[in-house]
Amino acid sequence: MNVLSLKAVSHWNIATLVPSEGEISYADLSAKCGLESTALRRLLRHAMTNGMFHEPAKDHIAHNSMSRIFVEDPKTAAWVDLQTETILLGGTYQCEALDRWPNSQSKRETGVSIGFHNPGQTSLYEEVKKTPEKIQKFGLAMELFSSGEGYEVSSLVEGYDWAKLGEGTIVDVSTSVIFPEHQSHCLMKEC
Fold first, then answer.
1. Which of 2, 22, 23, 74 has CB 3.0 to 4.6 Å from 60, enough for a Cys bridge?
2. How many Cα atoms occupy the beta-carbon half-sphere of 139 within 13 Å?
3. pLDDT tens across 115-164, in order?
4. 64 and 97 co-located in one domain
């Protein structure tokens, strides 16, 4: 799937503005989302080539099963938002970051910091923590991601010989820094 239209649908929350049942004109949708009507039509027609939405009548748009996921599954919507608004931004500038900081180990000297127009001054997690909405979406996206096969907490617990460590403390330094209780608590309970 080409991510251009996916990013547009997520960025302007288009799926939430299209009625769950029925249809909406491009002009009315344009007024709701704030994107100029011709650009909106082009982006949504591009989305249709990727299997999202359909045109039930001339100059009207409606949901199909794929676009409806953005409305009915907040975890998937959050994951798409994280990917298209943050992760892809980092990927876009990763080569530039490697050229700029070839031997860096800093979490701030990355494509993400360049993409957020703050080179070397911010990290992915610092950007996520900036607003409660971003924190919420990140948490939902991580819930979706960790619900996939092979990413369950049980895989971590069962996939390593924890007994060989003997007595000690386990420190969680995973991506659950936003919601530290999520995996750390599960790991402590199951060990």
1. 23
2. 14
3. 998 899 999 889 889 889 888 988 888 888 877 776 666 777 777 887 88
4. no
